[in-house]
Amino acid sequence: MKQFDVTGMSCAACSTRVEKAVSKVSGVQSCSVNLLTNSMGVEGTAAEADIIKAVRDAGYGASLHGGSQTDKTRTGRDDHADTQTPVLKLRLISSVIILLILMYFSMGHMMWDWPLPVWIENNHIAMGIIQLLLSAAVMVINQKFFINGFRSLLRRSPNMDTLVALGSSASFVWSTAALLLMTDAQLSSDHEAVMKYMHEFYFESAAMIVTLITVGKMLEARSKGKTTDALRSLMSLAPAQAVLMRGSQEVTVDVSQVRKGDIFIVRPGQSIPVDGIVLEGSSAVSEAALTGESIPVDKTKGDRVSAATLNQSGFIRCEAVRVGEDTTLSQIIRMVSEAAATKAPAAKIADRVSGIFVPAVIILAVVTTVIWLILGQEFGFALARGISVLVISCPCALGLATPVAIMVGNGVGARNGILFKTAVSLENTGKINIAALDKTGTVTSGHPKVTDIIPASGYNENELLSLALALETKSEHPLAQAVVEKGNELGLAVRGVTDFKAMPGNGLSAKLDSTLLIGGSLKYISSITDIPLQMSQEADELSSDGKTPLLFMEGDRFAGIIAAADTIKEDSARAVKELKDMGIKVIMLTGDNERTAGAVGAQAGVDEVIAGVLPDGKESVIRQLMKKGKVAMVGDGINDAPALTRADIGIAIGAGTDVAVDAADVVLMKSSLADVPAAIRLSRAALRNIHQNLFWAFFYNVIGIPVAAGCFVALGLTLNPMFGAAAMSLSSLFVVSNALRLNLCRIHDAGRDRKIKIRTERNRKKEMIRTINIKGMMCGHCEARVKKALEGLEEVESAEVSHEKATAAVTLRCEISDEKLKSAVEDQDYEVTSIVH
After folding, report:
1. N or C: which end of the chain has fewer CB within 10 A?
2. Count of CB atoms situated within 10 Å of the CB of 557
3. How far is the C-alpha of 656 from the C-alpha of 46, rounded, in Å?
4. DSSP 3-state assignment of 280?
């Protein structure tokens, strides 16, 4: 996705217009404009120059967004810095000072008889001229509204600035006309007409409208700045310098000069400059900045370290393996930034409304004025109603409703080590009702540990483990490493052996002080010696519990059993319970046999275990599960990538492979299954916040516009244009402030979890289904692209795509035109031949 910076946008109508303009450029597959960050993401083969030209032709500015985010921070450049608030603050202070003087003349003297110089007090024309000059000064200070507004109007693409400019200009022009008519009446000595026109002055309204809108814009800019705090805090973590080893010399350089393969050192209290591997030393490293985990992680020779993590105790020497844009920190920043540039399905409602909203409001304001004139009201009253309609209408709140919630939600996730790659993934994660978990590395730790030590008669635990340690030390098998780890943990000395032999499928043998040691499976050891019945039964029970029993002999004596197993993670059972409490069915996938898989599944508490799944079979299992509901696949291995891509939501454990992380929609930086329910909670909270914002934006306009138009005059309820401007400003401020409440979301608190309603098969039959015949799909990747495109439509519940059948079976939430379905598929460069109802 290419990233662009867009300038000149002021409301949702602007962002919608830019999207439409760029989408028409040949080679553009998709375009998403973010009003909050003034950014645009474009996918396709279109030339950058053509995209920029399309934006400029639409009346806005555009430039390619480039450069390393971390580099920008180190050089003092921050694309997310709040540069608007200081400018708006200066404009506001100047406007308020002049406005107070204007209000003194226009209202203070007339309403409260505040004193004025004698030469002005009885000179109504002078009073009018002073008000004209003061209001003109305020309008000049806020000329941006008028320049942008009328420029957009001339291009037939009106926006929020157009509404403000028209409202303020109408007040000013009518007041100026009233001043000229009053001057004529003064010359004719028509005192009654002079006083009549004096009351037709709306100079203070013209100035007050732009001033109040500036107040709202400043507060909005300040609040919007806070929504990117999480991203800026991530960028600020990047250390500025690194200490490299050049020969025997330590050289301090800018971190941008570090290259892959360089050797760098980190002392206690210093941040690690780039991703690397520890070559020498050991330390406790705090990874809280990246994973949200407060407990430091021990690092020794061979362990990986990440940029921006803090070395807390020891001295370490490392080799740089990822630098610049390739570091984990840079990838997180890029992922969060790109997510902000994408658009959630919920935003499409606001986009459609915003596209026609401003022209509709302008027409409504004119109609309101005309109707009041037809009803016999004076022109000043009718004009005031029309101006009120213009200035109270706020498409800005509609445009901000979704992106501010997405940005804050992404920030909360990033602080907790949960990264949503797109706005769609943030919105849809909370909608899943089936969670498929890979066993190894996801539910379990991924490497075996000793769980049981059962010595035979004549041996104790330490003696048995000492014999096993001597034998297993020379083996590289994972089960052997589990025995070695246990021996090292207990501080047992390793005794040397000779004549070591590995017998694949059976076990190991070696000589210890001329005594033969043998270790192996129950079947193999049983073929060599007689095993006591009780011990044989113990081995069977261990196997049924999902553990692997290792039997040992010393000479011709049976020494005992040591069992090892890939144990479940400490938080796996709790995470599974939390998922079930949310109404989500939890299924574990594994290639293990049913007995082992069942034992692990029972410990974790999952609803169902699907065992014996081959590495390439997970994708087909997910395909079948998707017929029953929205599915999230959680995995960490290379063989999980197809299933992660196939699922409605792919969730990758961050400690997993790069392939799995690339294929996923959500990335968990920690290897903790507890972050899965946390991600779902955050998604649901963000979706609730979006719905609240959209409700307020629509509700505000539905109530505000009729009041402004004078529909309730009979009840004595009218709206002064000044109060309409204040309400317009507050609506955007409310939406942004509501989104900031997401920062208070406690994503690891299961106390408020609610079960979602899982759709039954009976209800599912009642849903509308359409079959799309598609030409050009060749593989599973094609299927995934078409599926994501169709399910990105808000009207689509799910899509079952098959490249073999060349079809997509689409289940709908509500009615949708065939043309829209066709467009979604053909935007991905596939041909729709027909759609069957």
Report:
1. C
2. 14
3. 35
4. strand
| Percent composition of the chain: helix, strand, coil (DSSP 3-state, to 5) | 55, 20, 30
Cα distances from 25 to residues 42, 48, 50, in angstroms, run 11, 10, 7
Burial classification of residue 718, based on how many CB atoms lie within 10 Å of its CB (0-12 exposed, 13-18 middle, 19 or more buried):
middle
**Using CB atoms within 10 A of its CB, is residue 450 exposed (0-12), middle (13-18) or buried (19+)?**
buried
The Cα 333–Cα 414 span in angstroms is 9
Task: Give the span between the Cα atoms of 677 and 226, in whole angstroms.
Answer: 26
Please give the helix or strand (H or E) that residue 95 lies within, else none: helix 84-103
pLDDT band, very low/low/confident/very high, at 763 (cuts 50, 70, 90): very low
Q: Which residues pair with 666 in a beta bridge?
A: 420, 651
The DSSP bridge partners found for residue 211 are none
Query: To 5 degrees, how large is the angle CA 646–CA 342–CA 326?
Result: 80
Pairing of strands 297-299, 316-322: unpaired
Q: How far, in Å, CA of 219 to CA of 227, rounded? A: 13
Q: Are 59 and 51 in contact (CB under 8 A)?
A: no
pLDDT tens digits, one per residue of 473-522: 888 788 888 899 899 888 888 888 888 888 877 788 999 888 899 998 88
Task: Indicate which residue of 79, 161, 438, 665 is catalytic.
Answer: 438
From the list 30, 27, 11, 8, the residue with the least C-alpha distance to 19 is: 30
Nearest to 704 by CA among 722, 724, 721, 720: 724
**What does residue 118 show for φ and ψ, rounded to 5 degrees?**
-60, -35
- CB < 8 Å & 24+ apart, contacts of 718-723: 718/385, 719/388, 719/392, 720/205, 720/384, 720/388, 721/167, 721/171, 721/202, 721/205, 721/208, 721/209, 721/384, 721/387, 721/388, 721/391, 722/204, 722/205, 722/208, 722/209, 722/212
What is the DSSP secondary structure assignment for residue 107, as one 8-state letter?
A: I
**Main-chain dihedrals φ then ψ at residue 262, nearest 5 degrees:** -65, 150
Q: Which two tokens stand for residue 695?
A: 């409700």
Cα torsion angle, 40, 46, 49, 51, sign: negative
Would you place residue 455 in the very low, low, confident or very high pLDDT band (cuts 50, 70, 90)?
A: very high
Question: Active-site residue 753, yes or no?
Answer: no
pTM: 0.66
The residues near 263 (Cβ < 8 Å, ≥ 6 apart) are 244, 245, 279, 317, 318, 319, 320
Residue pair 612/593 in contact by the 8 Å Cβ criterion: yes
52 vs 339 pLDDT, higher one: 52
The SS3 call for residue 263 is strand
Of the candidates 481, 404, 399, 324, which has an alpha carbon nearest to the alpha carbon of residue 742? 404
Closest listed residue to residue 747, CA positions, set 493, 410, 502: 410
User: SS3 for 2?
Assistant: strand
What's the DSSP call for residue 300?
-
Q: Structure tokens of 634? A: 């959680």
